[in-house]
Amino acid sequence: MTYPSIARVNDFWLEGFNHNASDQEYAEHIELCAPHIPYLVRASRQLTGRMVRYLVDQGVRQFIDLGSGIPTRRHVHEVAQERDAECTVVYVDFDPSVVADARDVLAGNDRVAYLAADIRDPESIFGAPERARLIDLSKPVGLLAIETLLYVSDSDNPAALIRSFVDRLAPGSYLGMTHCSENAELRSGLEIFSRMFGEPPDVALRGREEFEGFFAGLDIVEPGVVPVTLWNPLTEEDVGRNAHLAHMFAGMGRKS
Ligand SMILES: C[S@@+](CC[C@H](N)C(=O)[O-])C[C@H]1O[C@@H](n2cnc3c(N)ncnc32)[C@H](O)[C@@H]1O
Does residue 226 sit within a domain? Predict the structure, then answer.
């Protein structure tokens, strides 16, 4: 595969092994225009670990991860199964090259499945045999969408989409999300990219209010909607140096 994929670009920033020269070049172009993006990607992966550990501590043992990318570098199943080997995970992504790599990575782990599906079609996920094998919908689920809705445009009504996932889950389930925020720095990064390299990544930046709206009907857990580095940090490394500059919101809601 020679075309750049955002999942493999992330893998480059996370110092993984599942990217190629075109992903690296694309990553370097993005970095040139928006130098803080790799920091946000790393902060987001650390946040995923904190959310998963939190959920396992709340008794959640099954996870659905939307827009998963490459499942390495301390992704959901690694953290969850380290806490409790019984945890099951269904990853979902629609990029065929990512799915192929991901299935290689997960070979032999029969408590994890990687679905090739479009999250804009929830039925294709809930109706999948692998979902039925691994996720019991009568029990709480940890639903995660980490830097995923950024790629779902307003015309696809992401709030209704998230609601349709949550509606299918049992009480006691959780929704954990991050989202790059609407801000001048990222906007100008996209503009610089389009001037230097052509079409920029097609992303939908969203403000706090819109992000909070994705949790409608859920009880937001502490500490609420905050910059990604400030969601229950455990170490200095989690917080980073300039938490207030982390233009990415994180939040989690519980279905009662
Ligand atoms: C920025 S990456 C985030 C990956 C991962 N959640 C993480 O935290 O590293 C976004 C991923 O969402 C996937 N994606 C975007 N739109 C999607 C859709 N409609 N259905 C399924 N996957 C999608 C992309 O292929 C990509 O792998």
Answer: yes
